Amino acid sequence: MGKFSRSWQLVKQSFAILRSDKQLMLFPVLSAIACFIVTAVIATGGAFMLLPARAAALAAGEQFRPNQSPMFLLGMLTLYVVNYFVIVFFNVALVGVANSRLMGGSWTFRDGLELAWARKGTILQWAFVAATVGVLLRTIEERMGLIGRLIMRIIGIAWTLACYFVVPVLAFEDLGPIDAVKRSAKLFRDTWGEKVIGGFSLSLVSMMLMLPSIGFVVVAAYLGGIAGLLIGVAIMFVYLLLLSVFMSAVGGIFNAALYRYACFKQVPPAFSHELIASAWAPKA
């Protein structure tokens, strides 16, 4: 409950910034739309490219296993890289504008896009590195036993924490992908220590905020039968989309706030110094 309380307070403080500039929500909206289009195009193209291999396997009387095809693996890596690029591109833009708002600046939506466009080459390099690491971790985890999977999960968490500040580092320090990871890990380690036992959790807040939509569907189905159920599901879908956009924007704002604290020990006026300083709890 203490973790949820801290997380909830941080979400509310981030929302104060979001309320003053609702344009920040455009970045996750455009990111989601672009990812959907990219995924559809690559998936459709990949399916057509696998048709000859599928036809050959069927002609030979063999079972077609697309996940073992080099073309499939190449397609998955391409999908990962492009989606990572899109997500990080709009996150860099979001963090840039959020940082300006936190410090009383007047950056606009266009300024954020211009910042991300100026960093497009570095973002693409980082997307390739992140996608490659992600694919490798996932592939190794799928082929190992229970103990191996637990070890890979721990490695995955460590990688996630080390990369927490990569987006603002790419935005404001213009380092290459490897140097950005090193810089991000150093900021995290110098601020909260080499080992942490937990901290805030925006996903926990998101999960709690999802519950009302489920309750609404249940009530709508109880009162309106099948028609009520369909209406309830449609409303729940819209609600979850809006919630996803809201939490993505909040996450970008908070990421910018933590970055400023880690770099300069400055806490933006909208945030509590105590909450920012205790975002992660160092292990005793």
Structure description:
The structure is a single chain. With 284 residues, the protein is an all-alpha fold. The protein has 10 helices and 2 strands. The chain has helices at residues 2-20, 26-59, 70-102, 109-118, 120-143, 146-162, 166-172, 177-192, 202-264, 273-277; strands spanning 196-199, 280-282. A two-stranded antiparallel sheet has the order 1-2. Helix 3 (70-102) crosses helix 5 (120-143), helix 3 crosses helix 7 (166-172) and helix 5 packs antiparallel against helix 6 (146-162). The mean pLDDT is 81.
Features:
284 residues; mainly alpha; 2 strands; two-stranded antiparallel sheet
List the helices and strands and how they pair.
Elements: H1 2-20, H2 26-59, H3 70-102, H4 109-118, H5 120-143, H6 146-162, H7 166-172, H8 177-192, E1 196-199, H9 202-264, H10 273-277, E2 280-282
Antiparallel strand pairs: 1-2
Brief description of this entry?
Helices cover 80% and strands 2% of the residues.
What is the strand tally? Answer: 2
Strand content: under 5%
Structural class: mainly alpha
Chain-averaged pLDDT: 81
